[in-house]
Inverse folding.
DNA sequence: GCCCTTAAGTAGTCGCTGTCAACAATGTAT
DNA sequence: ATACATTGTTGACAGCGACTACTTAAGGGC
């Protein structure tokens, strides 16, 4: 467009470039105003070019949110320990990975949970989001089978897990977990309560 | 401005009217784009009039967010039961009131936790937000004194409480608590786990 | 090797927004 | 009565999302 003189008329892989650029922008700062024109500028194309690949801004954001959920799920899967000794050892690394994902990608994480306002887009987005829930379900199910977890309706336990982790992540992103109020390791403390709530007292 | 012919030049109480109008707009629909000019239109003043009372849009939103936190705190205080028999009876009504506040005012609740991105505004906003945390602290402290709650660092228990409730509220707002996945009463189920994690097993 | 359809880029425009500056009307203190 | 501060109004500006019309390149059939 302006800087590269010999750039060809057609970008060639603009769709991917737009997504990549947008992800970069999200990573930069959480106070940032996400703008379609800025994405185009950084990608070196005209302001209307992205419309050839996405019907509107919301569609691009939804796509990015889906990628976010996929990455989060991967992070969680990667964080699973193979041979956990205790319930606490099983839950802690996953929870830490979850919260870390949120605090390291605050704008992306926030987007993931606010891009689904449109009904039909929200459907597809929620599918991906619920894949995260499945990670919790799976872990807890194994715990119940082994006997380290109380016999309770597993969806309820998974809801508690997701609610607590998601909530702590959000609070962390919003800077509400101030040490003077909430202690120096609020996540670990909260996990203690969660583990004691999930764990089988007979063990 | 246009509809009322005999309206005086000066509104008289525009600051309050702007806030009230904005709250109405937030209440209407969560997909709504909040616009300063639309607020002015509905309040029947010119598009620049609100600037005489708020330096910019963010300042108005921050003010509204503070009101939201105050109202939430009032809701929680009002929901406290006087003579709870069990820990569950003590926690449930407050938690229900919290989540109900969020699901009944989704746009407001979301705003409350996203208006604090500016550093200095965020400070004041976080003060109000932490007042909500204090409600949890107070309740749990009494529980520990009575003996219905495990002796653990109380900030950690309060963090678990807030994280779980805040998380469940957010998930509910986002429509992620679908019954097929998460059961028909996910909040109650999650509260079971929370109560079992907080509660003193000796009782 | 040419042509023609079509995908993928461009520029230009529209209505809308947030914000600011200049001006007008009102209330208030002296 | 008059000067000043407050609180309105109008008009402007740049930037945004979205649309249309135009241009450029790529590829396939003949």
């Amino acid at each position: 467009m302006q800087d590269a003189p010999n750039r060809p008329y057609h970008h060639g892989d603009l769709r991917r470039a737009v997504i990549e650029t947008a992800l970069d922008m999200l990573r930069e700062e959480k106070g940032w105003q996400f703008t379609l024109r800025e994405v185009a500028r950084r990608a070196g194309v005209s302001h209307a070019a992205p419309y050839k690949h996405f019907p509107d801004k919301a569609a691009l954001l939804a796509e990015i949110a889906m990628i976010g959920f996929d990455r989060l799920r991967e992070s969680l899967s990667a964080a699973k320990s193979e041979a956990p000794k205790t319930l606490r050892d099983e839950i802690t690394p996953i929870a830490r990975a979850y919260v870390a994902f949120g605090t390291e990608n605050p704008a992306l994480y926030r987007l993931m949970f606010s891009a689904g306002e449109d009904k039909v887009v929200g459907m597809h987005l929620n599918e991906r989001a619920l894949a995260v829930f499945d990670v919790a379900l799976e872990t807890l199910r194994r715990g119940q089978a082994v006997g380290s977890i109380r016999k309770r309706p597993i969806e309820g336990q998974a809801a508690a897990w997701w609610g607590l982790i998601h909530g702590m992540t959000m609070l962390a992103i919003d800077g509400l977990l101030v040490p003077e109020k909430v202690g120096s390791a609020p996540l670990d403390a909260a996990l203690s309560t969660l583990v004691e709530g999930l764990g089988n007292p007979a063990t």
User: Anything to note?
Assistant: Chain B has two domains: 1-54, 58-198. The mean pLDDT of chain B is 92.
